[in-house]
Amino acid sequence: MIVTEADRLPAMNMEIKSQDKTTAKAGSQIPPERPLLQVKDVTLQYKTKDHLVTATYCVSFDTYAADRFILLGPSGCGKSTLLKGVAGFMKPANGQIELNGKPVRGPGPERMMVFQEFDQLLPWKTVKQNVMFPLITGGGMSRAEATDQAMDYVNKVGLTKFADAYPHMLSGGMKQRVAIARAMAMEPAILLMDEPFAALDALTRRRMQEELLQLWDDVRFTVLFVTHSIEEALIIGNRILVLSPHPGQVKAELNSGDLGIGSIGGEQFQALHNHIHEMLFADRVEEIEDDDR
Ligand SMILES: Nc1ncnc2c1ncn2[C@@H]1O[C@H](COP(=O)(O)OP(=O)(O)OP(=O)(O)O)[C@@H](O)[C@H]1O
Ligand SMILES: [Mg+2]
After folding, report:
1. pLDDT in tens, 129-186
2. Where are the domains of the chain?
């Protein structure tokens, strides 16, 4: 595991906007506020009949309010497992996960998840009903309150005209918008997104990335976003945790500032892209060398 202090501080000489909490961490006089989510030395394991699989080993990171925090790493490094730990679906074998200073002990409405699969909606309910469902069952809202709140978020994701459509009538991108609206309507403390755009075609994926950033500008939610695309990490994130291959360990934590879609192809974007690529590629070289021994 290689975690250099330089990697924890702003990696490149990037302009950091005032909302970026790493400004405070990087040595300014403003004391850092308390993290919203703290993942402390977390090891997550799967016990199967014959094996004990260690998915992540001793992973630590802090997420602050309004962070767009990225978990980036190769397939099998435990990104989804970490998200499951934060969601409360899995208990750490070691370490602690805390939200607002309280240990996570199980799933809760303050941590809503959006998955990669298009089939996460209830097929017998309309768009509006899908978004309303957790508001009534988990959020304790009346039908009238849930209708207003659901329509507010259906509007935010641009699906007003499709409020009464059923999932089978929607494209993959539209289904993902509904899943995002459903999670966001609960107004969770943190939104957990597991490669939500990975199964979309390139054009739709780009549009969804843009829309998510626009939503963030509008709502300023906190998101923990999993991807294995360096480009997506740089577009979406303000902070990026780079994980090593299986079992996932923290390799570096980088500050990507507010690069965004407009920065693609620019010097800063390319420099950080290459830096991360080299980090991830170094692991692959080590793996290949290990295989050859
Ligand atoms: N239910 C399970 N039972 C046993 N092992 C599992 C289970 N789910 C995941 N694993 C193992 O845990 C490790 C981490 O898996 P995980 O799905 O978290 O990786 P990932 O980083 O999300 O990968 P990907 O990018 O392919 O989605 C892998 O070695 C995987 O085989
Ligand atoms: Mg995964």
Report:
1. 999 999 999 989 999 999 999 999 999 999 999 999 999 999 999 999 999 999 999 9
2. 5-110+190-292, 119-187
Please give the pLDDT value at position 104.
Answer: 97
pTM: 0.87
Residue 77 CA: nearest ligand 1 atom is 21
Q: What's the CATH code, domain 5-110+190-292?
A: 3.40.50.300
Which residue lies with its CA nearest to atom 11 of ligand 1?
55
Distance 113 CA to ligand 2 centre (A): 13
* Gap from CA of 103 to ligand 2 centroid (Å): 24
Nearest listed ligand to the Cα of residue 49: 1
In whole angstroms, give the CA distance from residue 76 to residue 188: 27
Residues with CB under 5 A from ligand 2 (ion): 80
CA separation for the pair 273, 265 (Å, rounded)? 10
Tokens 């991807």 found at: 227
Low-confidence residues in the chain, pLDDT < 50:
1-31
Q: Which residues are paired to 239 by β-bridges?
A: 69, 255
- Site residues for ligand 1, CB cut-off 6 Å: 46, 48, 53, 55, 73, 75-81, 228, 246
